[in-house]
């Protein structure tokens, strides 16, 4: 089946919010072998909405719509779809009860316009909404399928994952399995070149690379009537890719780099503390997203000034005077200092010039040092990064976690 995603909402056209729903839906449909060929956005206008939907139905088997299911007068998605599909809107008692209970929990009165949300096209498959008031629905007619989902991602995503994706899976005899491999340290162009011999001979298993800022994801997908066969073929290709990319492969579970590192620290019981200068607490902020990380993450010091480096981390004033705050020597003393202060197994430090100003001929914008101290000594890595301030800081965070990951891998092998 070929699909189109049609987002409804004037706020999307005005740039007030980003259309993250389309990205998420595309990814999930791709996982189950449904091709998404068009993304469309239309405002809350009945004439233009009708025109956009008619066009979508002409060129696609499946149209997934988000937005326009609210209680106000300009929420017209259901009305427009019902007109085009030749369906009456009828009161769905179960949805009305769910809406009534929702308002009771909030201790708020149910208004008449909210009752509008319980009216759904006749004979549709209702999709319950556990996180809001607007139910969704699926309509089938003459080999065309229209799916209506609410706009808020916190409501849309569970409804898509729990009902819509299983619905489409049930309509296919073919089993589609995908795996996502996460790579850090090899750019997309070089990675594709390294994998070209596998890409050129791909048959049942397809290989696709996707660049993300600072890293690359490889998606391998297989279709088969026998899921066990599909998984075996997938595992063989994954093994071939792993041989090519080596330790640049940090996850075969589609997890973020910081998640992998956090889990490794927790599983190994290795404690860590951070001393951050140019990243200003970004590394600490990311790692504290991991449940249970408090078992191994002790503390972080955001040390921007030279004064704080001396007072809080024990960096020698003569080191700063001789080499400067952005130097290998200072990074090493910062890492060793935070490890000593915190009494942890590891101490990580970052210091650099994120820009846009502050660089010199000898120390340009993008110069960053990352140091990792342990009982066996301190390693330091110099980076020459490019881009704006945000990009340089984000790349520094990724490199910091990768440095920890590689140390943990080597520790396991020793």
Automatic annotation (TrEMBL):
It holds the Pfam family CinA. Belongs to the CinA family. Residues 4-171 form the MoaB/Mog domain. HAMAP family: CinA_B. It comes from Acetivibrio clariflavus (strain DSM 19732 / NBRC 101661 / EBR45). PANTHER family: NICOTINAMIDE-NUCLEOTIDE AMIDOHYDROLASE PNCC (PTHR13939), NMN AMIDOHYDROLASE-LIKE PROTEIN YFAY (PTHR13939:SF0). This is Putative competence-damage inducible protein.
